[in-house]
């Protein structure tokens, strides 16, 4: 059961990425683009419609509303278009993650944190 849940979560993640790709495609109708952008932004946002700390109802938006919203956007798109974007999203998730890029971003965050400490901490000499 845990394996099935993980596959379902990966499929939702892939579909959200596919929504983002579909929203940038000129073949997607304007109303489907707008809805796809809203759903992708909501799915990636840390703010939920129903907070997760509320028992049972907290995961309702993630488990039921999000997949239903994705299905709605799929029905608003021309046939086959979402399948194309779903394949592109699956290929993108199969690519290896850049460790050098992650190290660079971590370095930038550390540099920014050091600059803030230097700027706001009185009496610190580096």
Automatic annotation (TrEMBL):
The chain crosses the membrane at residues 30-47, 53-76, 97-121. It comes from the Bacteria. InterPro entries: DUF1232. It is a multi-pass membrane protein. It is found in: Endomembrane system. Keywords: Membrane, Transmembrane, Transmembrane helix. Residues 32-68 form the DUF1232 domain. Its main location: membrane. Pfam families: DUF1232. Signal peptide: none annotated. This is DUF1232 domain-containing protein. It comes from Plastoroseomonas hellenica.
